[in-house]
Prior knowledge:
Elements (H helix, E strand, L loop, with lengths): L1 E2 L5 E2 L17 E3 L9 H6 L3 E3 L9 E2 L7 H4 L4 E2 L2 H13 L3 H14 L4 H13 L3 H14 L4 H14 L2 H13 L5 H13 L5 H11 L4 H13 L3 H14 L4 H13 L3 H14 L4 H27 L2
Antiparallel strand pairs: 1-2, 3-4, 5-6
Helix pairs in contact: 3-4, 4-5, 5-6, 5-7, 6-7, 7-8, 7-9, 8-9, 9-10, 9-11, 11-12, 12-13, 13-14, 13-15, 14-15
Amino acid sequence: MENDGFGSRILLDRFIGKPPGGGSDLDIANDNGGKNGMDRNAFKKGVPVESVFIMSRFVNLELGNESEDPSRRQQKVLVKDEAYYFSEARTAFETGDFEQALRLYAKVLEYNPQNAAAWTGQVQMLIELGEFREAKLWADKALERFPNEPELLAAKAVALGRSGDLQGALAFSDSSIEERGDTPYVWLARGDVMLAREEQRADYCFEKALLLAPKDWFVAWLAARIRFYYEQFVLALKLLQQAIEWNTGHFLLWLELGQCQQAVGLLGPAKNSFLQAQQLNPHSREAGLALIRLSQNGLWARLRGWCRQLFNR
C-alpha cells in the first residue's frame, strides 16, 4: 500500500508506478518482451509486470559544450521536455514497443500531469500488454482528473470489455461518444467492445474509424490488432494489407501480416512477409523467431502428412 501523492491510496497486485507528482516515474518491465507483433496468447493471458522505480525528477538537457568546435555549437540544442517525451512515446507505440511507450508517457506526466493524452496513452499501453485489470484501475485514476475525456472513457470501455464486463464496457463506450468523442480511437474502441459483445455493429465502428482517418496506416494497424485479438484473422489480414499500402517500409506491418497469414494457413506468403520484415529491420528478433517457428510448423505438418499416408495404405 503506497500513498499516490494526491491524497488517496491505491493497491495494485503488481504496482504499476506512482502518478506524476508522487515522486517517481511509471516504469513497467515485462519478461515476455511486450513488443512487436501480435501474440494473442499474451493478449488473452496478460503479460506479467514487474515493479521498477525511477527516483529521478531532473530534466535532462543535452547542452553543447562551449569548448566544442563552432559547427557543433550551431546545432540545435535538444531539450528533453514534455513534447520530446510525448513524441518518443508515440514512436515507441508505432513500433510496437509498448513497455517503452508506457515509460515515456509516464515521463510526459512528470512534466505535465494535466496531459490527458499521456494518461490515455498509458491505459492504451496496458491494454496492448494484456494488463486489462491494471488498465481499468489506471483509467479510473485518470478519470478522477478528466471525467469527460472521450478517449479515456473509450480506453476504459476496452479494458472492461476484454475483462468480461460487457455491460460496463458498453456504458463507457456510450459515454465516450456522448462526450463528442468523434475520433478514430473512440470508434476503434467501440468496435472492440462490439466484438467482445459479439455484435454485428462492430463492422460499422471500424469503417467509421477509417473514414475519420483516411489512408492513415496507424489507424488501420490498430484496427487489425483488434481483429486479430478476437481471432478474425482474415479481416485483420485485409486491414494490414491496407496499412502496408500506406506505409510500405514499416517492418512491423509485414511482421504482423505474416502472423495473420500463418494463422489462416498461408505458410508460403507468411514466410515472404517475415523475410520482408527482417530485411526492413535486420535487428528484429521477432522476425527471426517468426521464421524459425514457421519452419518448425511446416516440418510438423509434413510429418503429420506422411503419417496419414502411411496409415492409410
